[in-house]
Design a protein that fits this description.
Layout (H helix, E strand, L loop, with lengths): L5 E3 L5 E3 L2 H10 L4 H14 L6 H13 L5 H14 L6 H13 L3 E9 L4 E9 L3 E8 L7 E2 L1 H15 L8 E8 L2 E2 L1 H10 L3 E3 L11 H8 L12 H9 L5 H5 L4 H6 L4 H14 L4
Parallel strand pairs: 5-7, 6-8, 7-9
Antiparallel strand pairs: 1-2, 3-4, 4-5
Amino acid sequence: MSQKLLIIKKDGTEEVFNPQKLRSSLMRSGASKQTAQDITIEVNKQIKNGSTTDWIYSLAFKLLSERDDAAPVRFRYSLRRAVSELGPSGFPFEKYIAEVFSAHGYNTMVGKKLKGKNVVHEIDVIAENSEEKITAELKFHNRPNIKTDLKVALYVTARFQDIISTGYYKPKKARPYLITNTKFSTNAIKYVEGDGTLELMGWDYPRKNKPNLHDFIQKSQIHPVTALTSFSKKDHQILIEEGFITCQDIKKNGGKDVHKLGLIKNKKVENAIVEIDEICVKE
């Protein structure tokens, strides 16, 4: 298959299809070298000029699903999309990230108001342990091609400088964060790295020393409910609206809390619990 095939990204732009990019993505998700190679070859056979990245993802996901031992890999491969489907509002994402921090040993709060030197600020997520206080502004995007830009970094920096000036963090280490489920613009990264007030966490940023959001979620083993194929997209939305944000929320009390809703078929819930057991494999 020619390497000159053009594929269409979510933002409508075109790029040359790179099989190695697909192979690497599968292997980062935990697929064996052979599995990644087999799937890449099959995608190569079926792809056409003008195929979309959504089509490539769907085919690769389908091929992964046909493998008997692929549930954890399938979950990791779909993680980014599952997180982006927690919307449309940002609040479920805030609750989800708070749960991820909790799994890393932090006490968390969502939507708490803090008095700065000049005004009151509502903080999306506060995460605290014996050594540090993390105050995080979260920027949720439904589409992966939308970046969190310089304008956001500027105003979030100003907000946290207003809070820092009150001594709120002392005696613990102050760690103001800007977190997004997509990426940051180049200028946002340059500004934050130069200013030094904020820390950034995006899907694949930072790339060294500190965890990016993908790795932070993976290590927490907190899975978004939208990762479950046992439920339809409509089911996912019903569950999110009722406060079931994570797979762990579904499994709690053996699924009885979901059964009580009466909005999801019992068989689906039972299948989901089996699926959760398959994907919740410790690293």
